[in-house]
Design brief:
Helix content: 25-40%
CATH topology of the largest domain: Beta Polymerase, domain 2
Largest sheet: 5 strands, mixed
Strand content: 15-25%
Number of strands: 10
Structural class: alpha+beta
Radius of gyration: 20 Å
Number of helices: 8
């Protein structure tokens, strides 16, 4: 267990480098498989038939499609966040980041139907697919501003199929970047990104200094990070204030 002196909070969790092919692949945490299984198990609790999903099947189809076409990718978003914090984070879709020039080869082949997908729309840097059998939408982002997410890939195995996730530090960086004043973001999603960043930092204190010292971290982002640390370190509780603080009816 490590302690962040700046925030005064305790956190836990780390990753160690693995021998690889230069693609920046990291070894998985021993605790990640149960967390992913927990995410899958939540889907059995959905009663409405139109909302039922099978993210395991969707992830496997995504991985096989990208692997068969030798195109790099990482899973990001809510599913990746599920691996790196101690709370369950419900999510309804699968977020994928890839590289535009290499993904173009896959897109030109139009292999969607072979893997159970249908194309919802193609907006050049953002492609949405739907895995029909699992009722899961796949959002594929090839915007070069997110390319750093592929610099460290965490290997997870599902039913014997390797699936690559972005690293917790890179995920945290993207969440931090959305808090910048010049980063256009829908207000509710911006707030959710801030909460997501807090949950990652609670589980992984070792990334605080990496985020501060990252060359791509701006002065504004460092100030935001310090504000978040202060918020996380402030006393908190679930008790209601005394009744005499409320005016009488």
């Amino acid at each position: 267990m490590q302690t962040s002196q700046k925030c005064g909070l305790q956190f836990g969790g780390s990753f160690s480098p693995a021998a690889g092919d230069g693609a920046g692949i990291l070894t998985q945490m021993a605790a990640t498989s149960p967390r992913l299984e927990e995410l899958f198990s939540l889907e059995r609790l959905v009663v409405r038939e139109d909302l039922q999903q099978d993210k395991r099947a969707a992830l496997l189809a995504v991985a096989r499609m990208f692997d068969d076409h030798q195109v790099p990718y990482v899973v990001a978003g809510g599913i990746a966040l599920q691996l790196y914090n101690t709370n369950v984070r419900a999510t309804v879709d699968v977020d994928i980041v890839s590289l535009g020039d290499q993904f173009t080869r896959l897109k030109q082949a139009e292999p969607w139907g072979q893997y159970g997908f249908e194309l919802v729309f193609d907006r050049r840097r953002f492609i949405k697919l739907r895995h029909t059998a699992s009722n899961v939408e796949i959002d594929i982002n090839v915007d070069p501003r997110f390319a750093r997410l592929l610099s460290e890939r965490v290997a997870e195995t599902v039913d014997g199929q390797p699936i690559f996730f972005c690293s917790p530090t890179n995920l945290a960086f993207t969440k931090l970047r959305t808090q910048r004043s010049d980063w256009a973001r829908e207000p509710v999603k911006r707030l959710q990104d801030r909460v997501d960043l807090m949950t990652i930092l609670r589980a992984h204190p070792d990334m605080l200094e990496r985020l501060r010292s990252d060359p791509a971290t701006t002065d504004e982002m460092r100030r935001i990070l310090e504000d978040i640390c202060r918020e996380m370190g402030a006393p908190a509780g679930d008790d209601l204030p005394p009744e005499d603080e409320f005016p009488a009816d």
